[in-house]
From TrEMBL:
Domain of life: Bacteria
Segments crossing the lipid bilayer: 16-36, 83-103
Keywords: Membrane, Transmembrane, Transmembrane helix
Keyword Membrane found: yes
Name used for this protein in its record: Uncharacterized protein
Length: 140
């Protein structure tokens, strides 16, 4: 893969905003999916281990401490997952707003950019035609 294909567009600031917003939205959804998968696997592993310790009729002090530690780890994981969920939501919101604003502004300004490019091309064609006419008159 060519590294130049990974460079974001910088020829139009609105295009840059739109593509950056799109990247943020993709990143936020990827982060949310990863967070859910990680949380589920973590909780499955820890809850099974916790239930095994709780099912013992006479746990040792080490097993009681481990049980308390696992319960606390589960609380922390739930808290972290909740924070990451909201962080991904905020990131997705910022990305969506940037994407819509960038694409709409890009759409509004692109017509003017195209018109300027067409006028510039027409001016160049006219200049080339004038140069060719002056070259023909010099020859004759």
């Amino acid at each position: 893969m060519d590294i130049k294909s990974l460079v974001p567009p910088t020829d139009n600031i609105f295009k840059f905003y739109a593509v950056t917003g799109l990247i943020l939205v993709i990143f936020a959804f990827s982060g949310a999916i990863y967070t859910v998968k990680h949380k589920n696997q973590f909780l499955i592993d820890r809850i099974v281990e916790l239930r095994e310790l709780e099912s013992k009729s006479d746990p040792s002090p080490g097993e009681k401490a481990k049980s308390q530690m696992l319960a606390r780890l589960i609380e922390i994981e739930n808290s972290d997952a909740e924070f990451l969920k909201w962080a991904c939501a905020v990131l997705a919101g910022i990305g969506t707003a940037g994407m819509f604003w960038g694409f709409s502004a890009w759409h509004r300004t692109q017509g003017k950019v195209d018109e300027l490019a067409e006028l510039g091309a027409a001016k160049l064609r006219a200049e080339i035609a004038a140069i060719r006419r002056s070259n023909r008159t010099r020859r004759h």
